[in-house]
Protein: 2-oxoglutarate dehydrogenase, E2 component, dihydrolipoamide succinyltransferase
Organism: Georgenia thermotolerans
Amino acid sequence: ARAEAKPAPEPVSPAPAAPGVAAPAPQTTAQPQAQPEPTPAAAGTAYITPLVRKLAAEKGVDLATVTGTGVGGRIRKQDVEAAAEKAAAEKAAAQAAPAAPAAPAKAAPVEVSPLRGTSEKMSRLRKVIAKRMRESLDTSAQLTSMVEVDVTRIATLRTRAKNAFQAAEGTKLTFLPFFVKAATEALKAHPKLNATIDGEQVVYHGAEHIGIAVDTPRGLLVPVIKDAGDLTIGGIAKKINDLAARTRDSKVTPDELSGSTFTITNTGSAGLLMDTPIINQPEVAILGVGAIVKRPAVVKDAEGNDTIGIRSMMYLSLTYDHRLVDGADAGRYLTAVKARLEEGAFEAELGL
């Protein structure tokens, strides 16, 4: 029998991929994922224990600003304490930081004088002053010597006495009466400063008539304290205050503006430390009193050692006529006035 031919087998095709299944990707090394930073817990997103709430209230911590480090961002006791410490540190740093400099104050506007940009004739008084000042410089050989004076004791004494003095005397106690008193006493021992040159004769005055330079709206005037050497501190103070007030009000008499033998000008009232005043002719000297200023000075302690103290200091300026008064004479006079003022022994006259 004839053999039957068998059909050839069909080629085998690869099996189709299962639908939805991707081919396997190449393998890669797994990288660690960064964990998100903890953020402040929003109100109501994480449970907060009553203990933590109480602690936050005690320390003044706003829980909405606190970053929780517990499970699920829960705020723990340690988180509240850390927030409180941070707030305290920031507050301390702010307090320790230097304050910002204040804005510079604006300068006060300058008051412009109505005389600015104008011209005027010299007043009669101004003409007289100008004539006498020029004559004084042309007549005498003038120079000025100065001495520094510690008036701390007088300053202390005046502070103690001024209220009682005003109640008893009816007038204020300024520093000027002390200077007039000391200057007048020294003139008695140094008559060359209380003299007048009359041709070839020198007249040494037997009394101390002290002129006091007074600044007035009309110009400089010099009323005179007659027989000042016979007056106490109280008497001198009354005379100064009375004469100065009436001179400024144009109520002083011509007789009260003449007859001085020595003049004192209180340039310190205008803030000047020292001056070189011009002699009031026919006198031979004038004493300038400077401003009293507190400043460090070398002083002796109770054991005689040098030390630094805050003292009330001022300058006396003596302009004198070198035709009669030598530098040594001026020096001895100033030294006597200085010693009297620094001694400050005026308690008896003030009733202390």
Q: What stands out?
A: The helical segments are 50-59, 77-96, 124-139, 152-169, 176-189, 233-248, 327-343, 347-350. The CA atoms of residues 32 and 38 lie 18 Å apart. The first strand starts at residue 142 and ends at 150.
